[in-house]
Amino acid sequence: MVDIDGPNEVINSAGKYSGTVTSAAEHTRGVADGFVVHRRPESSLDHALVAKKAWIKQVFDDATRAAGARATKTLQVAVSDVNAITSADEAGAAHVRNLSV
Prior knowledge:
The protein is mainly α. It is built from 2 helices and no strands. The protein has helices at residues 7-33, 44-100.
């Protein structure tokens, strides 16, 4: 006999994972939004700093967006797979009951 978690436990775990990743991504995005240059750029070094800040923010935004998408996909696949396994289990049980009658 195979011992597996119940369908609701699997979906709840995937939901917690997805929620945690989403929360961390939002926090990271907030940190990146806080990157500021305190003066208007005047020198070429200042302009380079502003450009690097924009690049860093874009990298953070891209990474957090990708992490959120992966977390969402993980939850969707978990729900889909749990539903498929549950349906197959119910169909198998019905077939066995019909054979035993």
